[in-house]
């Protein structure tokens, strides 16, 4: 199947919200308990969140199928924080996460951002590692009283001027 990486459009909001919840509920059970998955899903914002995040300067990279339907996305904040990376369960293991992370990295470099960082789930961690991120620590916390964990990860980007004398 052919995919393309493009920037978010307001018409994508509903599809992104649905695909994130599908990913959390379908893929999440492979690394977290049902109780943890539901606590995580309950924290997910609805479709208005996407419009609000873009209007406040964040960038969303969308992987779209041949019919231009969103099947995965990454949300990059202006300080280099990758807040979200989700693949629809029917579109995993096709390199989309890596393509989205590379698009975010290209954008970050163009903006002069020298460090990307995230809090990756147990399931997203391997994609971030393939993209060159390193775990800085495991984060254990609770969502509405439900213990859960993820990983603080980062990737230092070399600045364009670091190679000049």
Description:
The protein is of the alpha+beta class and 165 residues long. 33% of the residues lie in helices and 31% in strands. It has helices spanning 13-27, 34-43, 47-55, 96-110, 125-130; strands at 4-7, 59-64, 70-76, 81-87, 115-120, 134-143, 146-156. The chain has a 7-stranded mixed beta sheet with strand order 1-2-3-4-5-7-6, sandwiched between helices. Helix 1 (13-27) crosses helix 3 (47-55). The longest helix has 15 residues, at 13-27. The protein is globular. The termini are far apart. The mean pLDDT is 93.
Keyphrases for this structure?
165 residues, alpha+beta, seven-stranded mixed sheet
List strands and helices in order, with pairings.
Elements: E1 4-7, H1 13-27, H2 34-43, H3 47-55, E2 59-64, E3 70-76, E4 81-87, H4 96-110, E5 115-120, H5 125-130, E6 134-143, E7 146-156
Helix pairs in contact: 1-3
């Amino acid at each position: 199947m052919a995919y393309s990486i493009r920037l978010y459009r307001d018409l994508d909001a509903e599809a992104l919200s649905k695909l994130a919840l599908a990913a959390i509920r379908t893929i999440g059970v492979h690394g977290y308990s049902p109780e943890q998955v539901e606590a995580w899903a309950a924290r997910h914002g609805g479709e208005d969140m996407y419009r609000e995040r873009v209007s406040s300067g964040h960038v969303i990279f969308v992987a779209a199928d041949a019919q231009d339907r969103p099947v995965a996305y990454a949300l990059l904040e202006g300080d280099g924080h990758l807040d979200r990376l989700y693949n629809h369960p029917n579109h995993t293991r096709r390199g989309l996460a890596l393509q989205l992370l590379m698009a975010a990295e290209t954008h970050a470099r163009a903006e002069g951002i020298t460090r990307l960082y995230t809090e990756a789930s147990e399931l997203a961690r391997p994609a971030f590692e393939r993209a060159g991120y390193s775990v800085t620590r495991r984060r254990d916390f609770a969502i509405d009283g439900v213990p859960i964990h993820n990983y603080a990860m980062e990737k230092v980007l070399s600045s364009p001027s670091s190679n000049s004398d």
